[in-house]
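Page 37, top half.
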Amino acid sequence: MKPFNFLALLLFIAGLGWVLTLSEGTVRQIQKTYYLAISPIISKGGKTEQFAKEFLNEVEHSADLKKKLEQSNRERDRFKLIASQVRHLEDENNELRAALNFKKQTEFDVIPAKVIRKQPLQWGKTIEIDRGTENGFGVSLCVLAANGGLVGRLHQPGDQVSSILLVTDEGSQVSARVEDTSEVGLVTGRRTNYGEAPKLRLRYLSKNASIRKGMKVYTDGRGKLFPADIPIGTIEDFESGPVHGEAEITPSVDFSNLKTVFVITNQPHD
């Protein structure tokens, strides 16, 4: 092969490789420039001229479609943002409505508070709320959810932010009774793995207690730390031991979706 031909072949291969690495839009622009450059020298009415015109029209049409697509995508993103804001406002409105309804229906004097922080670890079961001693809060006040279920008790009240020890914490103890029975016991939190739904244990029941799955558990008011008849949870399983029986309980409160709580301010104390 002659040196000139070999050099031409190398240039062709290099040029082909360069073109293949370009984006589709860049290749189109190169083709457009090429056809615009040769359009003055190709024959009028020839197939090459017709092909060049059709190609140039296609490029212009593609660029126009690209602009319209980009505009549509921007409009779509804007509407998604608006829809997200509307859903957020609807959620806040529903929470406010639920809070107002709960305050009207409950027999207790309650102050609503927003949950502003949750413990990241499953076994560190405390939350923080945006109310405190400025609202008359003191230690051990009972805290409820919007469905009336027991959340826990005020643990560390601050001026504007307070900590609540949840009923699901291992350090929590609540005197409780089982519906339609004479059984009473002590509800404590049970450690679970990270990501698992929290569970409770009802201990010191009669070892042969007639307890079935689905029975409700309520506070019994002993010790006056928690008012009586507040829903705690539902029996999931019962185990009879050599001395006492124990039951596993699913809490009445969905702690993973807890956003608003209600602090009872008129409960009796010893």
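Page 37, bottom half:
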Amino acid sequence: MQRFPTVSELRFRLSSFWAKSVTNKLLVVCVCVFFAQSLNLFFSSALTLNAAWIREGFWLNFLSYGFLHGGIWHIVLNMLALYFAGNAIERYNSGGNVLALFLGGTLLGGIVWFACVAAFAVNPATQTLIGASAGIAALFAYFSIAYRDSEIRAMLFFVLPVKMRAWLIFAVFAGISVVGFVFSELPSLREGISESVSVAHSAHLGGLIFGALFALAEERLRERGGNVRYFRR
């Protein structure tokens, strides 16, 4: 029978988990922020992305919204996606691009969403954006484009084993986001339904665009000589 680890062993495992990858650090930060939100330890609504805060000059909210979540299932699903996407990238480049992709995808996702709200929402003041999905979309897009010929094995709906090329992840994700924006998010904006209770497909599209452009730019720079790494540990 395996014994329960000692305090020193647990401390070592936690420190190893923290030091192992950028993805793990992002997971820890997001989970800690979520618990702080749940316990009302800080004024979390001040970090959301909406028109009111941007008019007041809270430009940092184009990034901070990505670390907030609206409920237990929201963060569980996002953190699972972050874990798999981030670690898939880190197997190839030791995490050098993960932080840049996550933050860049969050930023562009927030900008695209904000532009859609300004253009289509009947009442922009009611729209609020939270969640790490845009940054995660950038990670998936980057992996799909940078390693597009790699074969991916996954369990569809956690039941059916499937094999596919990595580029299909981008195609499927982009297709779902476009359809979701046209038939779900856009009608919600025009009807004045708050974005905080629906899916921000426009933010996903922004993240996908950033991740794809990042991968293509890195590919072009590598062809000219040298590898590209950002935020190297």
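Margin note: The first strand starts at residue 151 and ends at 156.
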